[in-house]
Amino acid sequence: MNGVPLVAYLLVGLFMFTIGVVGVVIRRNPIVIFMCIELMLNAANLTFLAFARYMPSSNVAPTGQAQAVMSGQMMVIFVMAVAAAEVAVGLGIIMAIYRLRQNIDIDEMNLLRG
Amino acid sequence: MDLSKLPVKPTPELGIFLLLAGIAMASAVGVIFFRNAIRSALCLVLNFFVLAFLYFTLNCEMLGIVQIVVYTGAIMVLFLFVIMLLNLGAIQTDKDEKLDIKLPVGIMLGLGLFSLIASQIVPQMIKIQTPKAPDNFGSPQAVGNTLFSNYLYPFEIASILLLVGIVGSILLAKRRLNP
């Protein structure tokens, strides 16, 4: 969008990523921790798209010049696919833990501690 | 975010961007500061929805629509479904005193991370004001052409990953027949 500098988008993405990190640290509900991970992935997506719009890559082989502009958007598509798979498996794990002990407090899940 | 120091002119586009960015950041804060998990999930829905409009302002129309359909449509419904199925909305608050110990540590960590990364990227990127990519680079035709020509093998591998995710989640959530 004309009139908006790249730094504005980057700062919004950085703020969302920081909120995600803080949420993973301070919250103990594993579903909220999953949501914070989604927040971090979306912050990375916003940063990818901002860079793809403002600084499209130009340092590629001449045959791939038209597609080089699209590489940021392709990365966002694959991040979305991986996030969908991750949510499905992660919520399945939470369901399995809940069925095992009727409680999903993250501080009591120390079965795999070293 | 102090855009007043930046060398930008107040345009209508900047106003729209600040409105969207403000809603996105406020709802992101709401995700981690609501105690009720359902309120957190609804804040995250709002955040993803506004984020799709931020994608539209970057001329990525295809990915904005995919964001609405996949994230706010599918993933957040899955979250809300699990929250309500496990009855986690009103989580017990008798053990939330430990949050008071974690809260200052988390906020200090967040401020440190934000200032560290911002101090590295802002001086480098402050000069870039105008978008360079063509205006139609986010149209469904452009995205589809690239996805099915240059990125065909990653696309197929992503489909295998999603298949593995489906099988794994069914295996995890299935009730054991013979324990």
Which helices and strands occur, and which strands form pairs?
The complex is a heterodimer of chains A (114) and B (179).
Chain A: H1 6-26, H2 30-54, H3 65-68, H4 71-101
Helix pairs in contact in A: 1-2, 2-4
Chain B: H1 12-33, H2 37-57, H3 61-85, H4 98-125, H5 140-149, H6 152-173
How would you describe the overall organization of this protein?
The complex is a heterodimer of chains A (114) and B (179). By secondary structure, chain A is an all-alpha fold. Chain A has one domain (6-57, 65-108): Helix Hairpins (Orthogonal Bundle). Helices cover 71% and strands 0% of the residues of chain A. Chain A has helices spanning 6-26, 30-54, 65-68, 71-101. The longest helix of chain A has 31 residues, at 71-101. Chain A starts with 5 loop residues before the first helix and ends in a 13-residue tail after the last helix. Chain B is mainly α and 179 residues long. Chain B folds into two domains: 1-91, Up-down Bundle (Four Helix Bundle (Hemerythrin (Met), subunit A)), CATH 1.20.120.1200; 139-179. Chain B is built from six helices and no strands. Chain B has helices spanning 12-33, 37-57, 61-85, 98-125, 140-149, 152-173. The longest helix of chain B is centred in the middle third of the chain and has 28 residues, at 98-125. The model of chain B has no long low-confidence stretch (mean pLDDT 85).
